[in-house]
Amino acid sequence: MEVHQLRYVVAIARTGNFSRAAAECHVSQPSLSQQVRKLEEELGERLFERDQKRTRLTTTGERFIARAARILEELADAQREAHETHEVARGTVTVGALPTIAPYLLPTAIAEFSARYPGVHVVLHEETTATLVALAASYELDLAIASLPLRDAATFEIQPLLEEELLLAIPPAHPLARKRAITLDDLEDAAFVLMKEGHCLGDQTLRFCHQGGVEPNVVSRSAQVETIRRLVHAGLGLSLVPRMAASDSAPRHPLYRSLRPPRPMRTIIAFWHRRRPLSRAAAAFLETLRDVIARTPRKHTLS
Prior knowledge:
By secondary structure, this protein is of the alpha/beta class. The protein has helices at residues 3-15, 18-25, 29-43, 59-87, 102-116, 129-137, 200-211, 225-233, 280-295; strands spanning 48-50, 55-57, 91-97, 120-126, 143-147, 156-170, 191-195, 217-222, 239-242, 255-257, 265-273.
């Protein structure tokens, strides 16, 4: 049994005619008919009933064609995967990400991607959401990693990656450090250290507080999560920090607590311009990133 024989009989079943099937398969009709006869002799069963008006599948033919079509689909998929792997062998992937995501989520993904595709160079841009949107809209990024909400969302293809809790960062000597259950009401009039305006984490913190009727007292701002953490540890105020950035092993770290529900959350997404489908290399990077996320524990030990 040969692959081309399977292609011939599937084409005959689809077109209902030996001549049309031969033309579709780019062979002569006598050659196609000869190959079908050889296949039927090998199977010991007829696959088609032929007359002057039409060609019909026998009962055996119907069952055989269904399997033959699946075999050809699997073969096509295998060929496509092999081709795409070859195509990913060289090139560049330009990835944009938020500063509150890039240092915590992407190093492992980039290292694993580079091991899988050593000929592909990853260029990483750490920017605010607004800048990532502008870069993606002008086709300067293959792929961007950010969190919702996204301005001009209809312009982009968006794929959710994970839901992440925002933890309350507390100075070690703060009264809330001794409280077992912390609610949003406990944050009323508390001093806060936030990301600079334009950074979505700062906006998310304010939005969460405002939705609960709390007006945070913002005493300081920074563009770096690490600076925020150290300011909190120094006692300047509280903050909300992504769970992925809440490392208790870092020097001069604050304490971290989950708030009582409803807890603050953020949705991390991948997005790219609708008019520029992902390249094979960018799709491979996104697949690698998903693999890394699937293996990453979502729980941290809290002090």
